[in-house]
Amino acid sequence: MRAAWVGDVAYRPDGWEWSEFDQNTKLLVDATAFHSWPVPPAHGSLRRVVFLLTTDWLGAGPDPVLAARSAAAVGLTHSLAALWAGIGTTVNAIAVPRRSNLVTSADVAHALRYFADPLNGYVTGQVLNICGGQTLVAALTA
Amino acid sequence: MRVAAVTGAGRGIGFAIARMLVRQGTAVVVNDVDGRAAHDAARKLTNTVAVVGNVATEAGAKAVVEAAVNEFGGLDVLVANAGFGVVGVEVGDVTAEDWSRVIERNLTSQFYCVRFAVPVMRRRGGGRIVGISSRAWLGQAGGTPYAAAKGGVVSLMRSLALELAPHGITANSVVPGSIATPALEAMDAKAREVLLRAHPMGRFGDPDDVARAVCFLAHPAAERITGQTLYVTGGRNLLLPSRTP
Question: What percent of chain A has pLDDT over 90?
Answer without folding.
Answer: 11
